[in-house]
Amino acid sequence: MQPDTDEGGLHWRWAVLRSLDGYRRAWLRRDLTAGVLIVAIAIPLSMGMAEVAGMPPIAGLYSCVLPLLAYAVLGSSRQLVIALDASTAAMLAAAVAPLAGTDPARYAALAGMAALLVGAILLGAGLLRMGFVADFLSEPVLLGYQAGLAVVVLASQLPKMAGVTTTADSVLGRFADVLGRLGDGSGATVAVAATSLATVVLLRAWRPSFPGALVAVAGATAAVALLDPAGVAVVGEIPKGFPPFSIPDVGLADIRALLGPAAAIALLAAADTLVSSRAFAARGGYPVSANSDLLGLGAANAVSAVSGGITVSASAARTAVAESVGSRSQVAGLTAAVLMVAFLTLLTPLVRNVPQAALAAVVTAAVLRLIEVANLRRLWRIRRTEFLIAAAAFLGVALVGVLQGVVVAMALSLVEFLRRTSKPGDAVLGRVPGRAGYHDTRRNPDATTEPGVLVYRFDAPLFYANAERFRSRVRRLVRRRRASWVVIDAAGMPDADATAVRMLGELEAELARRGVIVVFADCVGPVKDTFERAGFLGQLGEGRIFDTIEHAVAARPPVGTEER
Length: 564
What we know:
Largest sheet: 6 strands, mixed
Strand order of the largest sheet: 6-5-7-8-9-10
Strand content: 5-15%
Number of helices: 22
Radius of gyration: 30 Å
Oligomer: single chain
Number of strands: 10
Distance between the termini: 67 Å
Structural class: alpha/beta
Shape: elongated
C-alpha cells in the first residue's frame, strides 16, 4: 500500500510512521532545521549522560541513531525526541555498578542487557495495552525524584569539574570529599568547568533554542587545544563507525539481578515519555496513543542495546527546542539520526580533545533544571502531605539510592491515596431557596432539609477501606436527624466492591428493622451492575433506585404509611 497525497497534506494509512499523517511539504525545511539542532545538542549532552551512566562517551552517541528511528516508526508523537536522559542514566549506573565491579567490558554488557530488558518490558506493556500503569507515578514522586536525581548527578560530576578524584560512594561523602580536596584540584579544570557552565546557562537564558551546550564544549575544546593547560583531562580517542550488532553476553543470574531495576527504569521512562507525549500533543493539536508510545520506546531501548547504546527515554527539553524552530513531525528525528551516522562515520576525531570538565558542566546545567522549585512551592500551597511525599522522594534518592528512593516514595504515595480514599469527603444535601438541585448544607447555610428525610452524598468509590466509615456516618446521621427516608446520592460513587456491597446490604437490613427506608439516586451503570450481581437489587426491591435526587425524595410515602 502506498501513501497518497492531496492539497490538505499526506494521508498515511500504515500503522507505522504515523507522524507522517497529514504531512505538508512546507514543513520539511523546519523539520530539517530541527534535526540539525537536535544533533548539535545531542553530541555533547549524550556524551555527558553516558558518563553519568558509567559508560564511555561513545555509547551516548550510539544511543542517538537507531532509537530515534525505532520511535519514529512505532511511536505516536509527531514531535517527541528520544535521547539519553539523566534519570535513566543514573538509575542504570545504580543497577549495574554493584554487579560489574571494575571490569569495563562486563559493565558494558550488563548495561546493554539492562537496556534490552527495559525494551522488552516496555514492548510487552505496549502489546498488553498497559499505558495506564505509568499514571501511578504521582507528580509529588516525580518532582522529588527529579530533585534528588539532580543532587546525585551533581555529586558524580563535581569531582570532574574540580579536577580531583574521590573514592566515596555516598552523595554526602562525595560532596565532603571534593570540598576537602579543593586545594589539590586543577585550577585549569575548574576554569574550564566554570566557563562552560556559565556559557550554557547564559545562552539558555538569552535564547533557549540556541545550542549553548555545543558552543560551550566547542569553545572549551578549542581553548584546551590552543593553550594545552596542565591537568585538564580530555575524552581521548573515539572509534569511528559502529560496533557490530550483538545481544549483550551476560549470565542468567545477572539477568535475574537486573530484572527489578529494569522494571523500575521502564516505569520511570514510560511515565516521562507518556507525560511529555501528551503535553506536546495538546500544544500541537493532534492525538497520541499511550500504548503506541510504549511500543516505540520499548523498540528504541531494544535497538539501543544491540547497537552499543544504553537506556533511552523522552527528552522534553530537546523536544521543546525542536518545537521552537517549527518541528512538526518525526522527520526531524530521522534527520538527526542520519546526521549522527555521518558524524560517527567521519567526524569523531573532532571530539578527541573535548575536556571532561566541559562535559560535566553541560550535564550539571541540564540536571539543575530538574529541580522545579516553582512546582514544589505549589505543592506546599496546595497540599502539605504531597509536598512531604516529594521531600521523602528527594531524600530517599539523594541519601539512600535512586531505586530505593523511588520505591519508598511510591509506597508513601500509595499510603496517602489510601488514607484519603478511606476518609473521603461527604455531605448532607438540602434545597436552597431560588436555586435548582440539592446542595451541601455545610457550604450553603441557607440549605434546608425536609423533616424525616436524609439526603447523603459520599465523594469516593465505596470499597473495603471506607465501607465502615460510610456505615458509621449514615447511622449517626439517621439518629441525629430522626430520618425515616434515606436517599443515597451515588453520583460521587463511581464504583463499589464486594465488601462495600455486603456492608450496604447489612446497613439496609438494619435500618429497615427500625422502619427506615434506604433508596439510591443517580447510580452509574457499573455500580448498578455490581448491585445486581451481588443480589442487593433484589434485597432492595422494586422502586428503590431513582434517576435523580428530586425523584427519590418525591417518592417518599406520606408520613405514617412507609412500608418496606
